Amino acid sequence: MKNFSILGYGHIGKVHEQAILASDNANLISIIDFELPSGLGVKTYSTLEIFLQEDKETDVVVIATPNGLHREHAIRCLKGGKNVFIEKPLALNIEDAKEILAVAAEKKLRVFSSMQLRFSPVIQYVKKLLENNALGKIHMINVQCYWNRNKNYYKLREWHGSEDMDGGVLFTQFSHFVDILNFWFEKVDCIGAKSYNFSHTNVTEFDDSGYVDFTANEAVGHMTYTTSVFNKNFESDIVIIAEKGTIKVGDQYLNQMIYSDLKNVCCSKNVSTDQKNFHPNAIYEVADALMRNNESILDGIHAINLVKFIDDANNFSKSNKIITNKEYEVSHA
Ligand SMILES: NC(=O)c1ccc[n+]([C@@H]2O[C@H](COP(=O)([O-])OP(=O)(O)OC[C@H]3O[C@@H](n4cnc5c(N)ncnc54)[C@H](O)[C@@H]3O)[C@@H](O)[C@H]2O)c1
Which residues fall in a coiled-coil region (predicted)? Predict the structure, then answer.
C-alpha cells in the first residue's frame, strides 16, 4: 500500500479522493485546502506549510490545485520529501516543467502526471496497432475539439480564464488530446498555430479557438479547437488516415471507437467502453509503480512534450497576431 494526501479539494481533488478510496493499493492520509468541511474521515490541513511540517506518513501528494500553482506546489512537496502526482498540465511552460523534474531527480523522488485517458481501452488498442505497424505508413492525423465553455463557467472559479493560473484552452480543456498524440507517437512537434477569440473577448485573457499544425513522427497533423460552440459541447475526436487503415476515436473521454476500417484486422473487437473516469486506474498505477519501483506511462518525463507542444502553439499564435497587427497597420497606413 502507498499513502496519498491530496492538495486542493475542489472538483478534481474530490475525484482523486474517491479513486484513492476505491483502490486496494492506496491509502488516503490527509487533505489540504484553505477551507474544508468536517467529517472527511482523514486528517485535514489548511496550508501546505503545516502539512509539510507535521506529516510523517505520506508517500505521494496529489497536486490538484490550479494550473499556475503546480510548479510551486510540486517543488515544495518534493523538497519536503514527498513524491508528487500532478494534475494536468505538469506546468504552464517548459522551464517550469523541467525544473520540477530536476528537483525530483536531485531528491531521488518520483513525479507522475495525471494523463488518465492513456488507460482508455480504445487509446491502448490504437497504441498496440501503431506499435505493431498494423496501420502501415501514417499519412495524416486530425484532431477536432468543438466544445462550449460559457460565461458562467468562467465565473465559477476565479483562476479560470487567467493567463497566469489557467494558461488557455489548450492547457485546461484540450491537453488530454495532445497527450494522446504524445502517447501514440514518439516525436510530436507543433510547427505552427493561429488563434482567435470569437465569444470570450471580455471573459478570458486568452483566445477561445484556433488551429495547430503539427508533425507526429513522419505524419502531418492538424488540430482545430474551440470553446465557442453554441449551447453545449458538440464533439471531440482524433482521426488517423493511414496506408492500411482509417480510425476515428472520440467522445470527450476518448473512450469510443467511432470508426475503424483496418486491412490487417478482419473483425475488430469492440473496444469502446462506457467508462469515462480513468482516475482510479491512474491512482492504482502510481501506487504500483512506487511499490515495484517500475517505470510508468504516467512518469512526468512523458508529460514534458505536452507542455512544450502547447507552449509552442500559444507562442506561434501570439507571434502570428503581432504579424497580423503589423500587416494591418501597413495596409491601413
Ligand atoms: N485530469 C483531468 O481530467 C482534470 C479535470 C479537471 C481538472 N483538472 C486539473 O485539476 C486541477 C484543479 O482543477 P479543479 O477543476 O479541481 O479546480 P478547483 O478550483 O475546483 O479546485 C482547486 C482547489 O485548489 C485549492 N487551492 C488553491 N490554492 C491552494 C493552496 N495554495 N493551498 C491549498 N489549496 C489550494 C482551492 O481552494 C480549490 O479547492 C487543475 O490543474 C485542472 O487543470 C484535471
Answer: none
Is there a domain that residue 330 lies in? no
**In this predicted model, what pLDDT tens digit does every residue of 3-54 receive, in sequence order?**
999 999 999 999 999 999 999 999 999 999 999 999 999 999 999 999 999 9
Among 12, 46, 252, name the best residue to mutate to test ligand 1's pocket (greatest count of ligand atoms within 8 A of Cβ).
12
Phi-psi region of 251 (alpha: psi -120 to 50; beta: other; left: phi over 0): left
**159 shares its domain with 256:** yes
User: How many structural domains is the chain composed of?
Assistant: 2
Average pLDDT, the chain: 95
Ligand 1 midpoint to CA 215 (Å)? 31
Distance (angstroms) between ligand 1 centre and the Cα of 64 equals: 4
Which runs of E-coded beta strand occur in the chain? 2-7, 26-32, 43-45, 60-63, 83-86, 111-113, 138-146, 188-196, 209-216, 219-226, 235-242, 245-250, 256-262
10 lines ligand 1 (CB under 6 A): yes
Give per-residue pLDDT as tens, 273-313: 999 999 999 999 999 999 999 999 999 999 999 999 999 99
CA of 270 to the centre of ligand 1 (A): 34
91-115 pLDDT per residue, tens = 999 999 999 999 999 999 999 999 9
Structural domain for 126, as ranges = 118-262+310-318
User: Probe ligand 1: pick from 45, 65, 117, max atoms within 8 Å of CB?
Assistant: 65
* CATH classification of the domain holding 229: 3.30.360.10
CB 76 within 8 A of CB 174: no
